[in-house]
Write a structure and sequence with these properties.
three-stranded antiparallel sheet, mainly alpha, Receptor-associated Protein, single chain, 408 residues, 15 helices
Length: 408
Amino acid sequence: MPVYEYTALNDKGKHVSGIIDCDSARTARQKLRATRIYTVSIKEMDSPSHKKEKGALPSLRPFARVSSAEISMMTRQLSTLLVAGFPLVTALDTLIKQTASPVLKKTMSRIKDSVEEGKSFAAALSEYPGIFSQIYINMIKAGEASGTLEIVLERLADISESQAALMSKIKGALAYPIFMALIGCVVLFLLLTFVVPNMTSIFSDMGKALPLPTRVLIGTSNFLSTWWWVIAIFIATAIIGFSGFRTSEKGKKTIDRTIMTLPIFGDLAIKLAVARFSRTLGSLLENGVSMMNALDVVKNVAGNILISETIASAAKEVEQGHELGAALGASKIFPFLSIQMIKVGEQSGELETMLNKVADVYEKEVESSLVSMTALLEPTIILLMGVVVGFIVFSICLPIFEMNQLIK
């Protein structure tokens, strides 16, 4: 059914706007008029031919997207409405009117149409894989099958909010050191390309060999002043090349393998992937998704190809009758503590609870490690800046001291 966007006047003369789904613009006007809303303008948000394109939203900006925060908020609100006794279609219609994002509003309107036509909520969501993840869809499907859709929606909101909070903490912890490093690099570049040449020009008429530190400084300054554009092109090419490399299968494996071998960052990456895996698998199992289906879904959320391959290999072992803990432990990638906790959960019949505890443990470890790491990064960056600036000052002052000794 086409979706129309309208601006109108209500019975109090105030301007209102929104969207409505009807067979035609004329029907939409009649439907609005029946509610004492009088249209000023109305236009179709997309052409019917685009409806066949799953997940496509062609009439909107090319880079328009739905953020995870918007999905999380929508999920939480929908859960609240269902708990309050609203039928699914009525709850969706209520949310459509309250949603600010044009992309999400349009998507939800189409989902509501699909549900009204007889599709399940999960089937309607699956038409938009670019917005709703496979995990989200599978959990909704399990909730519909068990009659606990509102509970599943609440858990989905909890998961997305906790993951968003963790990522926000990671970004916040790294933002200041990265900003300091960038500012430091810019300051050093300006010093070497503009300030140092003016100060070292006085040494050109000395007629005496300059000290080694001064020659190194002048050579570096001349190189940056002359060839800065080559360096800029090289950096831009490297960034573009790296972006292309990381999108390839071989590139992803190489980068993930390299990250995992790094002394500090590798340990953090593994713990973060294990926390994400455990949280998602535990939630899927709690909501009635079978182990094999859950493993098939969760292997795509680890964020690391090597760990994803480990999960896929473990899934084959579980299918043959082996325990999950033993199958994951064979790879030697998952931390020992996580394997032991999963084994205890399997033996006690509390695997879902233990998986959530594993996620809690490693999320806290990642957070505390980041705090410690950033506490060391900031003084390290300041120290490096001090060393470089000190070298510049020393290299400039050294020949001046030598000149004073000759005069004496």
